[in-house]
Write a structure and sequence with these properties.
By secondary structure, the chain is mostly helical. The protein is built from 18 helices and no strands. 79% of the residues lie in helices and 0% in strands.
């Protein structure tokens, strides 16, 4: 593509998006391998893990809005977003190391402390990084391109986070603990490298003054007064609850219902298909609109969730086919919401004359993380309530309960999100009028 003065060089977008690779490699093991390791190998009860994950995640109600406000206000010679990579990356590396490599027999207190450190480090990196991406361009379609490239790097990270476990689990006697230990070493190498490339290579748009500090309660009021943003928040909250619920118990479903021995290899197929599908979702978003493309992806996910309920032991090929159909939608579920949020923030800019990307991306991040906490914690609590044993040896009643929890309940949670996102009203045409109004006002302000 030929660059114009108004468009970013691809290499700068790549420098920005590359950080998504190690961030994705951290997030996936938290959902898939932590519960089997700490419950099945370390002996921590499933219900206790579920409660700990919810408690640790709900700290984001404070840290995400605070991080958004700080990254909007702080001014340094290096900008207001990238500077947070330094403390955030340091915390993430320490948290991942101790969470993924416990020194010996540990309890739920140890788990809660270090999973909280990981979540805090993730917030310090992710909130400014997401706001930074929303500021790289003001164009409706280039924002989709930026988020598409970021999503490519996310999927590369997810493929790595599944290929390495697949390799480890192919070794005789390997366990979830071995997977986490290998991933922690990869994180220690990749995370600082990708952060350095983003810090040095990605541009950060300059602003003339710090935005006024907004207390968390007022930030919530500002965010939820924005109609398009409110729809996105509700739809994504349901999406994160549903998908995190399913992902958290995927290993148990694959092992005990279908008889899959190496779920890591199947996740390689899943994310590889997702990577190949990114251009399709970018094209579809341009053709029918981002919100309708996202609604289509949600619809496919609901159908594939329901289809898993009919699976039985030995149907690994069918399980893989359904999993790959779900993987086809993964790119849409990551790239389109970020672009939609960036567009919705312009509604606030038009009203307030302020550029509060950090506030809005912090709020959506907080909402999504609460959804993840509910999905992750609730799935483990409900599994424990039906008598499911993480170490295996479950009877027909426990297996049926697992199938209901994996295939039916997530579909029921996600279905209302399709209706919500389909009704989203900030189309490309309306966004273009909005950007024109903001540009005219900015021009008038600079001339006066």
């Amino acid at each position: 593509m030929t660059n114009t003065p108004d468009r970013l060089p691809i290499w700068r977008i790549v420098a920005y998006g590359g950080l998504s690779t190690p961030l994705a490699m951290i997030g996936l093991p938290l959902s898939i391998y932590l519960a089997p390791f700490y419950s099945g190998e370390m002996g921590v009860p499933l219900a206790a893990l579920g409660v700990a994950m919810i408690v640790a995640r709900f700290s984001d109600v404070i840290t995400d809005p605070l991080m958004g406000a700080l990254s909007d206000r702080v001014r340094t010679p290096f900008g207001r977003r990238r500077i947070w990579l330094i403390p955030g990356v340091a915390l993430l590396i320490a948290g991942v190391w101790f969470l993924f490599r416990p020194p010996g027999p540990v309890d739920v207190v140890y788990f809660t402390i270090w999973v909280s450190v990981v979540y805090l480090g993730f917030t310090i990196v992710q909130v400014p990084h997401a706001a930074w991406g929303g500021e790289l361009s003001k164009d409706y379609f280039e924002r989709t391109q930026i988020m598409s490239i970021r999503q490519v790097f996310t999927l590369i990270g997810l493929i790595g986070a599944t290929a390495l476990p697949a390799l480890v689990l192919s070794q005789k006697g390997a366990s979830a603990g071995d997977v986490l230990a290998a991933l922690s070493l990869m994180m220690a190498a990749l995370l600082p490298l990708c952060a350095l490339i983003a810090f040095c290579g990605a541009p950060e748009p300059q602003t003339n003054s710090a935005e006024p500090f907004v207390p968390p309660w007022r930030a919530a009021k500002i965010a939820l007064r924005n109609g398009p943003f409110r729809v996105i928040v509700a739809a994504l909250f349901l999406g994160y609850v549903a998908e995190t619920f399913r992902i958290t118990i995927t290993l148990f479903f694959a092992r005990d219902v279908v008889g899959v021995q190496n779920i890591g290899l199947i996740y390689v197929y899943y994310f590889s298909v997702g990577l190949l599908a990114v251009p399709f979702w970018g094209w579809l978003a341009g053709y029918i609109g981002k919100h309708r493309a996202l609604a289509a992806a949600f619809s496919i996910v609901v159908v594939t969730n329901l289809a898993t309920f009919g699976l039985s032991h030995g149907q690994e090929a069918l399980f893989i086919a359904i999993f790959m159909a779900k993987g086809f939608c993964f790119g849409a579920l990551e790239l389109l919401p970020a672009a939609l949020v960036a567009d919705a923030v312009d509604v606030d800019t038009a009203r307030s004359r302020q550029r509060r990307q950090g506030l809005f991306f912090a709020f959506i991040g907080m909402s999504n993380k609460i959804g993840q906490a509910i999905g992750q914690g609730l799935s483990l609590i409900l599994l424990s309530a039906v008598g499911f044993q993480a170490s295996g040896g479950n009877g027909p009643q426990e297996i049926l309960s697992l199938k209901l929890l994996y295939g039916i309940l997530p579909a029921l949670i996600l279905a209302p999100a399709i209706y919500l996102i389909w009704r989203h009203r900030l189309t490309a045409q309306r966004h273009a009028h909005l950007r024109d109004a903001i540009a005219r006002r900015d021009l008038e302000g600079s001339a006066s």
